[in-house]
Amino acid sequence: MPGIPNRIEHRTLTETRDLLDSGEVSSEELTRSALDRISALDKELGIFCYVNADGALQAARESDHRRSEGTALSPLDGIPMSLKDVLITAGVRTTCGSKHLENFVPPFDGTVPRKLTEAGAVLLGKTNCDEFAMGSSTENSAWGPSRNPWNPNYVPGGSSGGSAAAVAAGMGSYSLGTDTGGSVRQPASLCGVTGLKPTYGRVSRFGLVAFASSLDQIGPFTRTAEDAAHVLKVIAGHDPNDSTSQQVEVPDYVQALGNADRSLRGLKVGVPREFWGAGLQPEVAQEVRAAIQILSMLGAELHDISLPHTEYALSAYYIIAPAEASSNLARYDGMKYGYRAPGEGNSIESMLATRDFGFGDEVKRRIMLGTYALSAGYYEAFYKKAQQVRTLIAKDYSDAFNEVDVIVGPTSPTVAFRIGEKTDDPLAMYLNDVYTVPANLAGIPGVSIPCGFAEGLPIGLQFLGRHFDEVTLLRVAHVYQSATDWHKRTPDLRVENLT
Length: 499
Known about the structure:
Layout: H1 13-22, H2 27-45, E1 48-51, H3 53-68, E2 80-84, H4 111-118, E3 122-127, H5 161-168, E4 174-178, H6 185-191, E5 194-197, E6 218-222, H7 225-235, H8 253-259, E7 268-272, H9 282-297, E8 301-305, H10 313-328, H11 347-358, H12 361-374, H13 379-400, E9 406-410, H14 426-430, H15 437-442, E10 446-454, E11 457-465, H16 470-483, H17 495-498
C-alpha cells in the first residue's frame, strides 16, 4: 500500500499557502521545485505538452515581491499550477492535443485563466489531453499518451488525464481540467485525486475551446475538497462574455467548510440502485460500499433511490456530444487559422485534406457520428430523441433531490486500465463514462474523491448534488476526507521506477 509522505511536492494547496505566509518557503523555490520535478519525470509520464518555465519563474518572483510587501492577491498567490491544453492563454501555446493547433498562440486569456492570473497563480504549463477533449484515457492526443503516476503502464483517464496526473505526481498544487461527460471526475478517480465538476453555468466557458457547448464545464483537480473550495472561489461567477454563465451568487466555499462540523448528522444521502449493475469491477463496488458505510458512521442517513433512466444516459450522451462536436469543429477547415494541408487544388479538396490529416481517429469518429445524427431523415430519430431522454434524466435527478441532499456512488466502473487495452474498442472505452455522463446531461455538480485501492490503483467515490449546491458536495467530501486518509496517499515516483 502506498505511503503518506510529507514532502513539499505533495503538500495540499492549503498547507503550501501556510508555508508561503510563514516565510518558510518562497514561491520561486516552490516553482523551481515543481519545474525540476517535471524535468526529471515528465519524459516518461507525458503529462505536460508545454512547460512555461520562464513565465512561471517570473510570476513567482512577482508573487514573492507582493508577499514581502503584504499585498498578496489571494490564497492562490504564488502557488504553482497547470491548465488543460484546451484553455486559451495569452502568449502561451494552446493546441487542444491536435495537429490542427500545433503552433497556435492565443492573443488573449480566457476568463478562467485571467481570473487565476489576477489571483496571482503561477502557471507551470499546459497539460496533455485527448484531442479536443474527446476521450477517456488521454491516448488520443497528437503528442502521445499521458501515463498514470501510480503505474506508467496504465492510463490516467481522460480527457483531462494530464491535469489529474500532474496533481497526483506532485507537479503543482492544483490543475484545471474540463468535464464534458466526466473528464474531470473520471481521471480524478483513476489518479487518486479530488476532481470537481461545478454546475453548468457556475464557471465561465469563455476561452474554453468547445467540444460540446451544452455539456462542457471547467473544474479543478486538487488533493482535497478544501483545496477545491479555494480554487472554485476564484474561478466561479457570472461572466458577460459567456451567455450560458448564470447570474447566481457565489458562496464563500472556504468559509462554509470552516463553519461545518465534522459530522454528517441529518444529511440525506441517496444510493441509486442503477449504479451497481453489470460492468462494475467487484473490488470497486466493495470499496465504494465501504466508503458509504463510513458516511453512515459519520451521521448520514442512507436512502435507497432510483434513477430509472440511467441506462439510457450513455446512448443519449454519445448522440448529443458528437452532434455538438460536429458543429463546433466545422470551423477547422484550413481556411482561416490552424493547420492547412500543403498542395494545390480547390477549396473543397484543400479542406478535406486538411481535416483528414489534422484530426485524429477519435475526433473523426465523433464528427461522423454527430453529422449523421443531425442529417436530414435522422435528426428526429436520433438527436431529438436523445434530447428527450436528456430531459427525462434531468427530471430523475430533480425528483431524487426532493428526497435526498446528495447522491453517492462509484465514479468509474473500474480502476485504470492498461495503455492500448481499449483503443481498438471504442464502445468499451465509452463505457468508462457510464456513471459520470448523467450529471453533464442534467447540468448538476459532481465531485470525485479517493476512497480505496484495487490492484495498487486508486478508486474514486462520486458525490452528485443539486444545481449550484457545490457547498454541500464539498462539505460531504471534506468531512469524509477528515475521517480517512486515502487522499493523502501518493505514488512512489522515482525515475528508476518509470523506466
